[in-house]
Specification:
One of its GO terms (molecular function) is ATPase-coupled transmembrane transporter activity. With about 375 residues, this protein is α/β, with parallel strands linked by helices. The protein is about 45% helix and about 15% strand. The chain has a six-stranded mixed beta sheet, with helices on both faces. Strands 7-6-8-5-9 form a five-stranded mixed beta sheet.
Length: about 375
């Protein structure tokens, strides 16, 4: 045996330990986190946890998470338990992280939650609260498309095969009488699955004629000369539909309900603060976007994006059921059994404690 073998083994063990610490609840090394770490060290732990790992997107449609992070609402409610954040670009990767135990709670869109729940046979997650309604629009090149009928024969971008906006566009297009293969995107309209980061470039280059996208991508396209042809809110009763909600690992919910309740208290408090201080909240969200994505949104993008969105504690469960039905009709999903996808017990506890009204799970709640 080589004399260096024990040393190599020791170094390998240290490297493995470092990776485990990074995946766990360490405090990290960013200077901006030092004050938080000191405050955390002086407060009692919530549910005995060193940290709660929270996922979200650096998108305007995740306004609750952005503001709660930036203004410290989540950390305040968790006390001595560190709020540790992970920023995602796509729903499937966030679901994978939740399933792998890399995060405990996340803000996410409806389609990834539906798919994750269905694929796990109803064992992976629960939806525990609402976050946002609206913020999705069809933006087109006005030189090529002037009316809704003009969409036929054009190339329209959606963010990802089977994602929330992809399902919505396919459902709408089918309602117009157009035929589109849901997997290839080919048909009377060509659906181009394009990451939201590159869609504005494709629109500028003319390789797509429009896009059915969430904010802030929709407003970025408008800034590039696009025109809003349709706001998805106009297709829903009362103009409200779930865009973003809060999910939790079922294992984490069962083991740590006090921590989950703390996150929900923070979410409710954040939404209340956003409604009371819309301009300050918009600025806070943009500051967090700049931190997470490396660049703040310009006013011509941020302002209309923010105005198109409504923060809400209500997960609008009936609209989730409708969105699942849309995915089935579009041929993207076999009919899922969504019974038990919601557990709004802790949310309703928080709401009623503050004098509010409980919200409904549309018959899709867990039965005890």
């Amino acid at each position: 045996m080589s004399a260096t073998t024990p040393l190599r083994r020791a170094l390998a063990a240290l490297a493995t330990l470092a990776l485990l610490l990074l995946a766990g609840c360490g405090y990290g090394s960013r200077a901006a986190d030092r004050g938080t770490a000191q405050a955390v060290g002086r407060a009692p732990l919530t549910d005995g946890l060193d940290c709660v790992r929270i996922g979200y997107f650096a998108n305007v449609t995740h306004a609750t998470a952005l503001v709660a992070h930036r203004k410290g609402f989540l950390q305040e409610e968790l006390g001595g338990t560190r709020a540790r954040y992970a920023v995602f670009n796509a729903g499937p990767s966030e679901i994978e992280a939740l399933n792998a135990g890399s995060i405990d709670i996340g803000w996410i869109g409806p389609s990834p939650a539906i798919n994750g729940y269905a694929k796990s046979g109803g064992t992976s997650l629960r939806i525990i609260g609402g976050s946002a309604s609206g913020g999705v629009r069809l933006v087109v090149d006005p030189k090529k498309i002037r009316t809704l009928a003009d969409v036929e024969g054009r190339r329209i971008a959606t963010p990802q095969l089977g994602n929330t906006q992809d399902v919505a566009f396919l459902h709408w297009a089918t309602a117009q009488g157009w035929s589109i293969d849901p997997m290839t995107g080919k048909g009377d309209v060509t659906v181009v699955r394009s990451d939201n980061k590159v869609t504005p470039n494709a629109f500028r280059a003319g390789t797509v004629d429009g896009a059915w996208v969430p904010e802030p991508t929709a407003s970025k396209l408008v800034a590039e000369g696009g025109k809003v042809l349709l706001d998805e809110a106009s297709l829903w009763p009362g103009g409200r539909f779930t865009t973003t909600h809060i999910i939790v690992s079922q294992t984490f919910l069962k083991k740590h309900p006090k921590a989950v309740e703390a996150v929900l208290r923070a979410s409710v408090a954040t939404n209340r603060w956003i409604k009371a201080h819309p301009e300050q909240a918009k600025a806070a969200a943009n500051e967090q976007i700049a931190r997470d994505a490396g660049k703040a949104l310009p006013a011509e993008v941020l302002d209309p994006a923010w105005a198109s969105l409504e923060v809400t504690d209500d997960p609008l469960a009936a609209t989730l059921a409708a969105q699942a039905d849309h995915a089935v009709r579009a041929g993207l999903l076999q009919r899922p059994d969504l019974r038990g996808i919601y557990d709004l017990t802790l949310l309703n506890k928080v709401l009623t404690a503050e004098g509010g009204s409980p919200v409904d799970d549309a018959g899709l709640g867990v039965r005890r």
